[in-house]
Amino acid sequence: MTATEGRLEGRSILLGVTGSIAAYKAVDLLRRLTAEGASVQVLLTHSAAAFVGRLTFETLSGRPVLSDPLELLPDRRIAHIVAAREADAIVVAPATAHWMAAMASGLADDVITAACLASTAPVVVAPAMDAGMYAHPATAANVDRLRSFGYRVVDPESGLLASGLVGPGRLADPASIVDAVVAAVARGAWLAVDGPGATSAAARHDLAGCRVVVSAGGTAEPIDPVRFIGNRSTGLMGAEIARAAIRRGADVTVVAGHVSVPLPADARVVSAPTTAEMREAVLAALAGADVLVMAAAVADFRPRRASSTKLTRDAAPVLELEPTEDILAEAARSVAGRVPRPVLVGFAAETGSLDRAPEKARRKGVDLLVANDVLEPGAGFAVETNRVTLIAADAAPESWPLMSKREVAERLLDRVAALLAARRGQSGGSGQSGGPVQNGRADPPLVADVAVSPSAREDVE
Questions:
Q1: C-beta atoms surrounding 167 within 10 Å
Q2: CA distance 188 to 88
Q3: I need a labelling partner for 3 at 20 to 30 A (CA). Which of 116, 285, 328, 397 fits?
């Protein structure tokens, strides 16, 4: 294949460059990855920057280089954690003996090892060093250990080295490294690590051909042209579910309220800032969908009348509220006669107790309800992690350990895929979409002039 066939179209790739003389070849590798359609974020160690400057990589990638594990984004999130979560694959080229030793030992003393430790994406490693260093038993042991992690190691080539010696240690041809990245992404080689917080299975194309609708973010119910009743949802959980579904081969539509995180580029995005607009968009998208995941924080109430002009402080307004539409319950009623019935997933953000969650699942008619206590540390709004309880029909509530929201998304979609496979098997058909199933922070409320306490209906942030 040529380097312009778009094999990485829409994929997010992290390119880690360490301090080897071969760092200059990473510039060619970056060009080849972008030519394949990838969006590339470069991670540069401080020693690598001594060989090739940041400006070169930033010009070719169109993104600021990340080189400090302590670097924060403008919204105060940790930069390398966000990059690691959004990556479809990580490639480290060139990888020095020092870097491989640190990675094999889990020492996060640079931005690349920190990102690799924080990610469940497949990792491709392309070593480059002097022949004696590569042949040393310590290096060989570290290479073996990286392979035991599930990392794909692209062996170096033999030839004339910077030291003047001849032997194995030259960085593999960039075209071969690109092929390894393509293969890793296509295979979906997510790390399957045992223990709390681990992904439940390697990613598969088990949603290939399926149409998945995901709602994300919070709704904003207008008080006047300036103010609204809202909530603290960022949309992160919905965005992670959408990304995970895309990685599994699904055709994804995101119905987005107010979100403050990037949504996946490969998704079809429908803007729906209010509950009424979200209801209309969700029901329209559900007409041809196999799965609906309502992760949005939908307001329970809205002002009965919104002012057409900005309310003044002197007016001392009193808001009269009315209930909003229950989108998820209406969605369940709308597909009651469809065979096979779409898989419906709801989210419930609670405070202090999850006792209401099982009854809520029954009342709304969902297949799965994901509930959490947003007051629990690490499990509320605007954080990278979550601790949820999964509630399924005719089953005891299942508590999951604290894990990243990406991991919650992957584990949830494992259940969704299994339900789809069983449902389609019972109906004897391939479903609405005809596709196969192969295996079974929005800002705080802008209500400074009035005292209103909004609540959220469906959301686990």
A1: 16
A2: 8
A3: 116
Contact (CB, 8 A) for 158 and 170 = yes
Please give the backbone phi and psi of residue 366, each rounded to the nearest 5 degrees, phi first.
-95, 160
Give the start-to-end residue ranges of the domains of the chain.
12-187, 211-427
Query: How far is C-alpha 374 from the geometric centre of its chain's CA atoms?
Result: 20
pLDDT in tens, 223-247: 999 999 988 889 999 999 998 898 8
CA dihedral 450, 453, 458, 461 (to 10 degrees): 90
Residue 394, C-beta contacts closer than 8 angstroms, at least 6 positions apart: none
Catalytic machinery residues: 231
Q: Classify domain 12-187 by CATH architecture.
A: 3-Layer(aba) Sandwich (3.40)
The residues, any chain, with a CB within 8 Å of residue 206's CB and separated by 6 or more, are 248, 249, 417, 421, 437, 438, 439, 440
Name the residue among 195, 243, 253 with its Cα closest to residue 412.
Answer: 243
Q: What is the pLDDT averaged over residues 182-202?
A: 49
pLDDT in tens, 84-134: 888 899 999 999 999 999 999 999 999 999 999 998 889 999 999 988 889
Q: Tokens at residue 44, please?
A: 């540069």
Tell the CATH topology of 211-427: Rossmann fold (3.40.50)
Same fold, 12-187 and 211-427: yes
